[in-house]
Amino acid sequence: MRRVIENEVRLILGDGGVLLLVVFAMLIYTIIYSVAYGKEVVREVSIAVVDEDHSSMSRTLVDGLRSGPDTFVAYEPTSVEEAKELFYRGKVFGIVVIPRGFERTLLMGEQADVAVILDGSHLLIYKEVLTQTTADVLVEGTVIEASRLIASGVGGEDIMGVVQPVSLDKHILYNTPQGYGSFVMPSIVVVIIQQTLIIGLAMLGVRRRTKRDILQINSYCDAIKSVVAKILVYVVIYGINLTIVLGVVWTLFGFPYNGRTIDVAILMFIYMVSVTSLSLSLSHLFKHRESPLMLLLWSSVPILLLAGVSYPKEAFPEWLYLLGRLFPSSSAVNAFVDIGTAGVSLYDVRADLYTIAVLATIYLIIAIVTEARSANKNTLRS
Amino acid sequence: MQNVGLWSVAKREVREILHNRLYCSVVFVLPLVMLLFFTIMFYGGAIDNLPVAMVDRDKTPMSQELVDMIEATPGIYIAYETQSIDDAERLMLEDKASAIIYIDKGFERSIYGGVPTEVECYVSGVNLSASGVVERDLQTVVETFSSGIALSKLQSLGVGYEESMVDVMPINVHTNIVGNPYLNYGYYLAPIFMFMGLVIFIVVTATYAIGRELRYATAKEWLEVAGDSSMSAVVSKLLPLTITFTLYTQLIYFILFFVMGMECSGSYVMLSLGGFLLVLAYQSIALFIVTATSNLRLALSLGGGYAVMAFTFSGITFPVMAMYGVAQWLSKLFPLTYFSKILISQAVVGAPEFYNVKDFVFLTLFVLLPLVLWRQFGRVVREEQYWGKE
């Protein structure tokens, strides 16, 4: 077993491509993705306000819009045409138009209009602009409504009970700032582990065969030893990587980590056994060392989607979702997000854990059988 | 000597694509599988019927009315009704519910008594895409419900119907959504995912086309067929791939506009030109990387990583303008960023064509990139020391 471990380490160190993928890729990718997603929330979205009314009431509304925090009045053009040009040039992501006669209409006790032009092509931006602008308009509206009611003699104290009898009180559990990075990074890390291992071990597999770099395997007992030793090597490498990612990168970018370390460790250990076994099973299928990368690179994003977290599982066919369960990453994404971010216990994610364990068993058996058979083939040939 | 020149190199490449199983898979089989996958994934596109857990502690006609209204919205489906908030939270932790809606005791009494009251909603920040839909629909329902009560109250106070309408909402907000008017999540993600997938194959195939000649030391024969001209060797070798992948960009537009039913709001000509330039830009980058490394597998790793990364920095998932300064700067290094701007303004927003001229200029600059290393390329394909690296 020591020989297998030494040999495996020597192989990894001897191949720059594999070294890059298996040892460094996880850290490099995690840092780059964190740089992109680390800012977490969309704040101060630039908008344009066209005030055609120039009245004290319209100015109050513009002040309200200016105070943000989700939107930021970057331009106050004089015409809608000008505002549209800013919109097309990507300078602003929303336009609020206060039409001429706004104040007069309100003073006459009629309903005044405000137009908000929104960009539906980016939903995160859309949501911020819509909620912020409508909230600002609503505040002004409520003030006007209340003063009108008081003027017409409706009681003072319980005025809010008339104006807005029911409102929505929103609470966010876990990932409370609703940060995008905190939402998507745990899933990405889990998928990176699987993809780098599958591709890296497939490259090594080709090398083992072409260079006849295979240790003598005479029985199933040898095959089991060989597979277990290899799994150990990768558990250690990825264990160290994951510790750095969760310890350093997570702290640096302020991603939430609420899980108990022992729970995360147990989950990740089972996941690693499952993924390494899958990778070892697949590693015998490739002919050339360039093949794994060419054939598998594209699959990372589909696999991330199949987990049903970054894109909700309710939005795509159930058969596709179930098919995705064949990848250990699908269940692991779910479990890791729940333990790491929401801070639940292993018991709460037992369904996912069970799936990963079953996959681990199946892939382990396949890995041992293929290991034994490929060794036989090679000894026969040489 | 056999035929020499442009067509012979192209023919030689087509023969290789058809006879080499690995090459054939990345040119024909996998790109189509990828497009089929994303079509199935995003077909329909609207996220609806998200399961929520309902805790109605009031159990009055008034609370029941609100529950019925919530049930009727397309985005929310009341999958569970529990007695306590703890039971509901358990369901949420087990991923059976996307949100908890909680109506406390005394809800009806407060409304009749004229005391402002609240409906509580617990969403999980762990699952942003689902909770966004629930929040949006719930907000609308509660506002409608609240206005309805306000309206009837004012009328009971003796205010006429029209006036009470005005009183409840003195300022009316007209929203006008430019592009993606149904706010369909699938419409919004499908185009960019498909092009991102295509970009990976553009880079992989172009890298393989050129890198293969170095790796297996066949560059000499390749150059002989090309009549010893580096330029015609590259152009005619990549030509079959350029044509195939440009056709794929057309296939994507066909899927988007005819299969998924998106509306093309802008210029189809601009979209086609953008697609063509996207193919050329990424082929050029592949050529650049192969020249710089003269190593097939290293070039595949670097080019592949670069192609995958483009997606994150294109700003579709998380907007570029909200990223750190460094990341905003990094996003300029990927052709996909410029292409997605063209895609969004032309396919979704319908902006006048000239607003995208800048993006076309940048895409063209990427196409010119290999010229920087042109002399190096001449050496790499002619000198044996660059060949045979594994």
Give a quick set of tags describing it.
heterodimer; A: 382 residues; alpha/beta; abc type-2 transporter like fold; 2 domains; four-stranded mixed sheet; 5 strands; 65% helix; elongated; B: 390 residues; 9% strand
Secondary-structure blueprint:
The complex is a heterodimer of chains A (382) and B (390).
Chain A: H1 2-14, H2 16-37, E1 45-51, H3 56-66, E2 71-75, H4 80-88, E3 94-98, H5 102-107, E4 112-119, H6 123-151, H7 159-163, E5 166-173, H8 180-210, H9 220-253, H10 261-282, H11 291-296, H12 300-306, H13 318-324, H14 328-342, H15 350-381
Parallel strand pairs in A: 1-2, 1-3
Antiparallel strand pairs in A: 3-4
Helix pairs in contact in A: 1-9, 2-8, 2-9, 3-6, 8-10, 8-14, 9-10, 9-15, 10-14, 10-15, 14-15
Chain B: H1 6-19, H2 21-42, E1 50-56, H3 61-72, E2 76-81, H4 85-93, E3 99-103, H5 107-113, E4 117-124, H6 128-156, H7 161-168, E5 171-178, H8 185-215, H9 219-225, H10 230-259, H11 268-293, H12 296-313, H13 325-330, H14 335-349, H15 357-368, H16 374-382
Parallel strand pairs in B: 1-2, 1-3
Antiparallel strand pairs in B: 3-4
Helix pairs in contact in B: 1-2, 1-10, 2-8, 2-10, 6-7, 8-10, 8-11, 8-12, 10-11, 11-12, 11-14, 11-15, 14-15
Structural class of chain A: alpha/beta
How is the largest sheet of chain A built, in terms of strand order? 2-1-3-4
**Biggest sheet of chain B, open or closed, and with what strands and sense?**
4 strands, mixed
Largest sheet of chain A: 4 strands, mixed
H-E string of chain B: HHEHEHEHEHHEHHHHHHHHH
Instruction: Tell me the series of helices and strands of chain A, N- to C-terminal.
Output: HHEHEHEHEHHEHHHHHHHH
Query: What does the overall shape of chain A look like?
Result: elongated
Q: How many helix segments of chain B?
A: 16
Strand content of chain A: 5-15%
Number of domains of chain A: 2
User: What's the quaternary structure here?
Assistant: heterodimer
Low-pLDDT runs of 5+ residues of chain A are none
In whole angstroms, the N-to-C terminal distance of chain A is 23 Å
